[in-house]
Each structure stands twice: as C-alpha cells, then as structure tokens.
Specification:
GO terms for molecular function: purine nucleobase transmembrane transporter activity. This protein has 21 helices and four strands. By secondary structure, the chain is mainly alpha-helical.
Length: 459
C-alpha cells in the first residue's frame, strides 16, 4: 500500500467524498489564508511580554516559534483525533486582550496572564470531556454570543488604526485623525491596507499574508534605495536568528505566584467565554460550507474539535502564547474541497515547515503586520447581521457588547456590559422568565466586581 492509499485509509477520505490531492490542495489553501498569524501574533504579544536581557525583536522571534508550535500541535490533534479539516492558531482579539487589556491595562504580569490562559485551557478540556458544552452555552445571553465577534472586530480595528498611526491621541477629543500624509509610516500602512483589501475583495487566497509581505518589501526597497534611513520605516537593526524559547516556555508557572483572585477569575472567565463561543461559532460556520451539520444544525461529535482547541490553548500557554482557537479561514480550504483531517495534517506540517522563516519575522515592519488587524476586524463585523435589533433586550445587550469593547479598550468590559444589560432589560419589559437563574447570578457577580474594581478596591 502506497503513501496515498495509506493516507486515504487513515482519514476515510473516500467516505467523505474527497481524494488525497484535493485534501492536500485544501490544506495549502487554509495555511496560506491563516499564516499571517505567524507574523501578527508575535508583534502584538511582544508589546506586553518583556524578557530581561532580550531585545524586542528577539522576543518577537521567540513568540513566533511558540505561535508556530502551538498552532501545529493543535491542528495535529484536530487532524488525528477529530478528523476535521480545521486549522488552529492563537486567535486575533484574544491576543490583543492579553497584551493591551490584561498586561498593559490592568498591570498584570505577563506570566500571570499566561497562567490564566493555561487555567482556561484546562477548564475547557474538563468541560469538553464531561460533555458540559450545552450547559455552559445556556448560561450566556444569546445577543452577547451573537455580537461578541463584531465587538472584537471593532476592538481590532481600533488597535490597528492606532498602530498604523492613522488614529492618534488628542487632548480634546481623546482620539483624532493623524497627520497621515506627512508620516511615511502611516502612508505605507494605508497603501498596504488598500492593496490587501483589494486582494481580499477579489477572493485571492492568502490575501492578508501577501499584503503583509508586499508592504514590508516596499518598505525595505525604499530604505535600501536610500529614500529613507534605517529605523524610519524599517527596523534599525536585526537580531540573529533566535530559536531558544526557554525564557518564554514554562513562564506560566511563575505566574501562579502573583495572583489577585477576583481579577484573575475575571480574566480566566473572559478568555474562556470568548474562546468557547468563538470556537463553537467558527466550527458551525465553517461546517456549513462543508455540509458537515446534521438535520438539527449541529456538528456531530463536536466535542472532538473542541478538545483540539482546548489542548492547543493549554499547550500554547505552556509554550508562551495566548489562547489558541479554530480559524474561520479554515473555510477557504473547505471551499477547495477539504473534508477530512488530512487537510488539517497538511496545515500542521506547513506550520512546522515555517520554522525556517523565523529570521525573516523580525525584518517585517510593524505597520505591515498590523494591516491584518484592520482586515480581519472588518471581516468580523458581519456578525452584526445575526442580532435581532428589533428586540430591546437584544439591541441594548448586543449594542453595549460591541461598543464598550473598543471604547473601554477591553473585551472583558464589553462582555460584562452585555451580560449585565440583558437581564436588566428583560426585567424592565416584564420578560424576566426568559432569563435563566445562572444568567442573573453571573450578572450580579459582575456588578459586584465592577463596583469594587472602579472604586479601586481591587485591580
């Protein structure tokens, strides 16, 4: 039996109306669509993760390796255990929450933030193992679940605009439009963003990673051509290849020594909430493309891909990266005909192969990498169509969830606003019976937390 026959038999390719060649092409397509995370995740997390004795770009390379390894491991579990064509990697939005809200905003050490991700992953695994998914889902208001993706999208947009210096601080209005066309950094970022949106609109596979690399190449071309000096639109110096991640891997253990209980619980809760529902929503959404859903609209044996997600998150925290989740970009491979775990296996192997490009990651200017946040942020806004804006409880809860996230610079605060608002509006309109006891309890606990937190009693 040849390799092709062995792979076909191992992943039941023929039973899923596919063939090995189609699965291989689908895996390559999915990888190209999501590989931008290899560059983007390190630059986001490196804003918060500072390791004594190592420069910024050395830390970027460490996180890039952690990103690759956690993505490869999680996707491998998806391939061999769940036999589904889904790719996984550290999620955009949760990495921003990790860096900008938890570490830089709340002042929590990055090691403790990794500990929270680890706890969230273990909790996810336990709940998945005992089949408690449906009970957890019932605890959260439907409008919050439907709007959380769009809220994260707006949060990513806000961060991306700031990093590209399109939006800048202002004493009178807090933020304002920057001096874009007097700033080469912003000009290149805006041109790269326009180019990337054009590729995406035309349905080009890998549009985001092509946009990032092209923008970076233009920046280096202008620098090497003498138009700009080193350090203006390209890194001033480049470190040697950094493959030692021992200062990063295992750092979560140290994080358990500095925990403020209430804040830590809220951080874990937010990581878990977003990861759980983002993964469930992505799995259902991508499964629609592949006709994987049963007559009730559910994904059979959904606990297996959920377990792959949980294992990836736990391993990612141990390696030194934020929450791993299933990628909506997996739909590109499914559209190419990917139907089995062989597609995911190809994605995992390509992630491992990308370890060879680690030295290149540090050469990519930040404005090029942050293009991805704006493009993905716009994509995520489509979730707003799922909100019933004619229902007052839905409108208020979803509206606050979506808007508080960017305005408070926190996914956690947006979720809390939506969770608290839902039972209050239901009470106001006399539909209190529609709210589960658990929803009242969670809302009450969040109210207590924010009273204490905003009075400065806790972090």
């Amino acid at each position: 039996m040849g390799l092709t026959d062995t792979l076909a038999a191992r992943f039941d390719v023929e039973e899923h109306d596919s063939d090995v060649r189609t699965e291989l092409v689908a895996g390559l397509t999915t990888f190209l669509a999501m590989s931008y995370i290899i560059v983007v995740n390190p630059f986001i997390l490196a804003e918060a993760i500072q390791i004594p004795g190592y420069e910024f770009f050395e830390v970027v390379q460490m996180i890039a390796i952690a990103t690759i390894l956690s993505s490869a491991l999680a996707t491998l579990v998806m391939a061999l255990y769940a036999n589904r064509p889904f790719g996984l990697a550290p999620g955009l939005g949760l990495n921003a929450f990790f860096a900008f809200t938890v570490v830089l905003g709340l002042g929590i050490p990055w090691q403790t933030a990794l500990a929270a991700v680890f706890v969230e992953g273990v909790l996810f695994m336990l709940l998945t193992a005992v089949g408690a998914r449906k009970y957890v889902i019932q605890l959260f208001p439907e409008p919050v679940k439907r709007s959380v993706g769009a809220g994260i999208g707006l949060f990513l947009l806000f961060i991306g605009f700031q990093e590209l210096q399109i939006v800048v601080p202002d004493d009178a209005t807090l933020v304002t439009l920057g001096g874009i066309f007097g700033n080469p950094w912003a000009i290149l970022g805006l041109l790269g963003l326009t180019f990337t949106f054009g590729l995406w609109a035309r349905g080009v596979t890998g549009s985001i990673v092509i946009g990032i690399l092209t923008t970076a190449a233009v920046g280096w071309g202008l620098t090497l051509g003498g138009v700009f000096e080193r350090g203006v639109i390209t890194p001033e110096t480049l470190p040697s290849a950094q493959y030692d991640i021992s200062p990063l891997a295992g750092a979560f253990v140290e994080g358990f020594t500095e925990i403020e209980p209430l804040t830590f619980v809220l951080v874990v809760f937010t990581f878990f909430f977003v990861d759980f529902f983002d993964t469930a929503g992505t799995l259902i959404g991508v499964s629609q493309f592949g006709d994987f859903l049963d007559e009730d609209g559910d994904l059979p044996e959904m606990e297996k891909p959920l377990m792959a997600d949980a294992v990836g998150t736990t391993a990612g925290a141990m390696l030194g990266t934020s929450t791993v989740t299933t990628y909506i970009e997996s739909s590109t491979g499914v559209e190419e005909g990917g139907r089995t775990g062989l597609t995911a296996l190809v994605v995992a192997l390509l992630f491992v192969g990308s370890l060879a490009v680690i030295p290149v990651v540090a050469a990519i200017p930040e404005y090029a990498s942050f293009i991805a946040l704006i493009v993905v942020g716009v994509m995520m806004l489509q979730g707003l169509v799922e909100v019933d804006w004619s229902d007052p409880a839905w409108a208020v809860s979803a509206g606050l969830t979506v808007t508080v996230m960017p305005f408070a610079y926190s996914i956690a605060d947006g979720l809390a606003a939506g969770i608290i608002a839902y039972p209050l509006i239901k009470l106001a309109i006399g539909e209190y019976d529609d709210v589960a006891l658990g929803q009242y309890v969670i809302a009450a606990l969040l109210v207590v937390y924010y009273v204490l937190q905003t009075r400065g009693v806790i972090l």
